[in-house]
């Protein structure tokens, strides 16, 4: 990791920059894949599976028999872990269901909002050699609670053409029956445009590599919504002299192992802690199966020695991390001053990995600084907030002058007449 000591504010921009990748070539490749699927449908997806995944598929849909058999293929301890995570995620997201009360803005003028589940949603779940069944829960649970009518799940098949049983088991828990063996940009295209087998959806969710991310960005131009801009995983840790260096290093490595383009940032006001973390990183890195991946990520990451925790928090807010971990005295007080972060982990016993899997919060979070303006996935991500209003004649009479004056000032006479004609005062 690059070590920076006592930077002045002019250096903050460089500290908060993410690793840059020119994705123009990726966009060109993805655009051709999107067109291939738009015109070729299921046949194109089967061709893409052979080309990119080395899998010869006879069909795309996972059968009901495959879904039912998944439970028996899981180790009991993994099944129990998925069940426990499902319960916690459901409890947290169910608490977000709040009915709004109608408001009378004037006598006879009643307004309210209603949450309505998006009819058709598509979930992309990375699979293959590293099936992210936790993502099924993170996306499937809020879709289930929101009451989305059609939930399509696409995931790359394994080399034998099957889908990992943990993904199928998690999908069944979430009430998802439309599961398809399709990955990468092709899967995004299928959910955006529809094929003979796969229904087109209104909004696409889920993480993926740079090709999946580019595909989601491009299909937006066709009117399909996406959950949020995505990028490589990241974490920022604020730690002081009270922090355990081994804990801090473990948290940094848990993000670094995601991929070589991941980034981690340590902010501390303690020189001994900074040095202790560097030693722990070297020790723990050697023990990881994905040491080479994590090592490459650390090469693009930074440890910063700051003057105090106020400066650390200001720098963290400027960075706007996907995950922010607070391992310091009075961590709860500091958490109350956080402005920009996807998800915050408070205290020494709140590792980021619990949020990735089972604490209940959602792990689909904004990266690349988008936490300045975007929220992570929640129940609200799967619903539309539709507003309603109902007026009595007396209510319309009380507001008529306001509406007609404003409409005529904007030069929109028909707007004014729509009020007057109801009150018998049309010009």
Which sequence of strands runs across the widest sheet?
1-11-10-9-12-13
How many beta-strand segments? 14
The termini sit apart by 74 Å
CATH architecture of the largest domain: 3-Layer(aba) Sandwich
CATH homologous superfamily title of the largest domain: Nitrogenase molybdenum iron protein domain
Class from secondary-structure proportions: alpha/beta
SSE string, helices as H and strands as E: EHHHHEEEHEHEHEHEEHEHHEHEHEHEHH
Number of continuous helical runs:
16
Average pLDDT reading: 96
How helix-rich are the residues, as a percent range?
A: 40-55%
Name of the top-level CATH class of the largest domain? Alpha Beta
Choose one word for the global shape: globular
Estimate nothing, just give the exact number of structural domains: 3
Uncertain regions: pLDDT < 50 for 5+ in a row?
A: none
Strand content: 15-25%
Output the CATH topology of the largest domain: Rossmann fold
Radius of gyration: 25 Å
How would a crystallographer describe the biggest sheet? 6 strands, parallel
Family: Belongs to the histidinol dehydrogenase family.
GO cellular component, one term: cytosol
GO molecular function, one term: zinc ion binding
Protein name: Histidinol dehydrogenase
Short description:
About 45% of the residues lie in helices and about 20% in strands. It is α/β, with parallel strands linked by helices and about 425 residues long. It folds into three domains: about 1-20 and about 230-360, Rossmann fold; about 25-105 and about 115-225, Nitrogenase molybdenum iron protein domain (Rossmann fold); about 390-425, no CATH class.
């Amino acid at each position: 990791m690059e070590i920076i000591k006592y930077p002045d504010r002019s250096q903050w921009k460089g500290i908060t920059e993410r690793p840059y990748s020119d994705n123009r070539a990726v966009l060109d490749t993805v655009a051709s894949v999107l067109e291939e699927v738009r015109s070729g449908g299921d046949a194109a997806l089967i061709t893409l599976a052979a080309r990119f995944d080395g899998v010869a598929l006879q069909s795309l849909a996972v059968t009901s028999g495959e879904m039912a058999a998944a439970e028996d293929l899981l180790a009991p301890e993994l099944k129990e872990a998925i069940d426990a995570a499902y319960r916690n995620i459901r409890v947290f997201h169910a608490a977000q269901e709040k009915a709004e009360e109608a408001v009378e803005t004037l006598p006879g003028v009643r307004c309210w909002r209603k949450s309505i589940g998006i009819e058709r949603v598509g979930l992309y779940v990375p699979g293959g050699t590293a099936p992210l069944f936790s993502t099924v829960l993170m996306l499937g649970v809020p879709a289930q609670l929101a009451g989305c009518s059609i939930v399509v799940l696409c995931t790359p098949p394994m080399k034998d053409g099957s889908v990992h049983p943990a993904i199928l088991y998690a999908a069944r828990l979430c009430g998802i029956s439309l599961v398809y063996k399709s990955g990468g940009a092709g899967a995004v295209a299928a959910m955006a445009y529809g094929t003979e087998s796969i229904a087109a959806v209104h909004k696409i969710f889920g993480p993926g590599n740079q090709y999946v991310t580019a595909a989601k960005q491009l299909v937006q131009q066709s009117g399909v919504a996406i959950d949020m801009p995505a990028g490589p995983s990241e974490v920022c840790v604020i730690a002081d002299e009270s922090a355990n260096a081994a804990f801090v290093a473990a948290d940094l490595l848990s993000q670094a192992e995601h991929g070589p383009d991941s980034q981690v940032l340590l902010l501390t006001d303690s020189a001994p802690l900074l040095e202790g973390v560097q030693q722990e990183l070297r020790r723990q890195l050697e023990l990881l199966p994905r040491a080479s991946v994590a090592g490459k990520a650390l090469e693009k990451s930074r440890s910063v020695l700051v003057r105090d925790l106020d400066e650390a928090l200001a720098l963290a807010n400027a960075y706007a991390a996907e995950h922010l971990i607070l391992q310091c005295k009075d961590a709860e007080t500091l958490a109350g001053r956080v402005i920009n972060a996807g998800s915050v982990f408070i205290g020494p016993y709140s590792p980021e990995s619990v949020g990735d899997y089972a604490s209940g919060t959602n792990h689909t979070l904004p990266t690349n600084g988008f936490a300045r303006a975007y929220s992570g996935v929640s129940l609200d991500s799967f619903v539309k907030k539709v507003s309603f209003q109902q007026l009595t004649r007396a209510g319309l009479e009380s507001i008529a002058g306001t509406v007609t004056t404003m409409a005529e000032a904007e030069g929109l006479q028909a707007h004014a007449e729509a009020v007057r004609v109801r009150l018998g005062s049309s010009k």
